[in-house]
Amino acid sequence: MTCAFQFLSWIPPHAISNAILDVAFAAEEPPIVVNLVHPRPTAWKTLIQPIAEAMVEHKITSSPLPFVPFSEWLERLESSAKDVSEETMKRIPAIKLLDFMRSMAHSDVAIRASGVMDTEAGCMTLFATAVAERVSPTMKELKELSSGTRHSG
To answer: Which Gene3D superfamilies match (predicted)?
Structure first.
């Protein structure tokens, strides 16, 4: 499992749909743009840890996968992508996203080197959510995701 020093502003599907309804039926005229991202981003590992645990729980792996730096994980992925077979592509679908993963790993290295740890995964600036929180009670009251949070979708 990868370990990145970035934040994720993932938002549960029910919150997105409720926020859209909040904006659509608001008494005031809706703003031109509303950033529908989680107003309280969560650390990458906070959301990835339950995935690692679920893999053991569902017998996908026999023990928890170790967390490794993103760059190390990418090296392993690139190694798997050499002379790739159809079977390997099915077993490791992340190979199809290798260019994207390279940019993510590059961003992770840059973030670690800079010491600035308040960026979205992929080295994106965190989105401003003040407008979304003003026009949508759902967004304003949305609780931070945690490793104990379970969402179906």
So the answer is: NAD(P)-binding Rossmann-like Domain
**Length in residues, the chain:** 153
In the structure, what pLDDT confidence band is assigned to residue 153 with cuts at 50, 70 and 90?
A: very low
Specify whether the CB–CB gap between 37 and 129 falls below 8 A. yes
Give 47 or 96, the one with higher predicted confidence: 96
Domains identified in the chain, total number: 1
Q: How much is the average pLDDT of 93-114?
A: 80
Residue 110 domain-assigned?
Answer: yes
Mean pLDDT of 108-123: 66
Note whether 63 and 56 are within 8 A (CB): yes
> What type of residue sits at position 128?
A
This prediction has a pTM of 0.65
> Has residue 147 been placed in a domain?
no
Domain that holds residue 126: 2-141
- Report d(CA 129, CA 99) in Å as an integer: 30
98-114 and 70-81 are packed helices; what angle lies between their axes, rounded to 10 degrees? 160
Pair of tokens at residue 81: 């992508």
Tokens of 100: 């994207």
Position 102 in a domain: yes
User: Which has more pLDDT, 102 or 136?
Assistant: 136
